[in-house]
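dumping this here before i forget
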Amino acid sequence: MKKAILESEVQRYISANENSNPNDLVLKGIPFEQELHAVILDQIKAKKKIREKLPSWHGSAGIYYPPPVHLEQSSSEQTARYKAELIDGKTLIDITGGFGVDLHYFAKKMTSLWYCEQNEDLANIVAHNAKTLGDGNLHFKQGNGIEILKTLDQQFDWLYVDPSRRSQNRQKVFLLKDCSPNVQTFQRLFLKYARNALIKTSPLLDLKKTLQDLKNVKAVHIVAVNNEVKELLWHLERDFSDSPLIRTINLNKRKDQTFEFQMSEISNAKASLASPIHYLYEPNSAVLKSGAFDLIPQKFDVFKLHKHSHLYTSENLVEFPGRRFIIDKVLPFNKKEFAKEGIRKANITTRNFPISVSDIRKKLKVKDGGDLYLFFTTLQDGKKYIIICSKI
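structure:
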């Protein structure tokens, strides 16, 4: 960490050039000492990168940013706030540190927090930013989080771990066994020192497989932002042995969408099928990730269009964790029939359909955009259809 970066003149230069091309700045000449140039360029890249993801950091003077690689896995402010809502008690230890976004929001809930980070420079950066952001009640420990946990040898209400998803040769990984630390190996240790453990993982993990790998899972939170699944959160509780709660949440600007159920409910769920009626429903990405396709009709009083289509319909409009549409017309998938509608521009989605969106656009000569929504899918009779809709 180079403290000269925090001087007001350097900070003004970084802010003024946030949208500049780094190569242009190098050619033009950076008006500071040569040894600061690489760090200044990293600060500019990072500041631009976190503008939407971390607006509080972006808007605060005196924030020191780490090299961009340390920002890749950091939480957004939206997901960090959500995580903070899940914890209670007084004490928490974060054994994988990182850029400290989650720590900032945990600090608003807990009396005392420990932050552990192996990278000494990163740990110093986070300690500086914590002071800048007004976070107190923090204990900074530089070193291996697992070893620090053993050395402290004390009880915590919560342990938080966000395993590194980079292998030793810096390749991206996502399976638990490939991440560091391997939470499968240390899960018993976590619950020895903490009543609860919260594990953040890649959204690519398979739910059923991971529930076999982890023990004492009380809840799994599937967290999406603007309909893109960003992370899976695994809440482990000491001595818990019942069926875990699966909670999906889609955080967005209009209204957060939630849907939850017990994992045991999925095995007995049977979906009722129907042809398109009056309304069409498309689950958000978090719900789709949950795999509760046949449970949805029981929870929301809707019918499924086909066993494998994952689209739903109803006579009366209901609240639903996803997009809702009024069905205007249902057509067989036929180029001549579709041409009669005179549709030249529409939003296209496929579900359980053998042709890609791009090929459909070429075949039917439909441009992207507009107010119409076309769903290309298979209905319960096994035939292909186009459902023409208007969004509610």
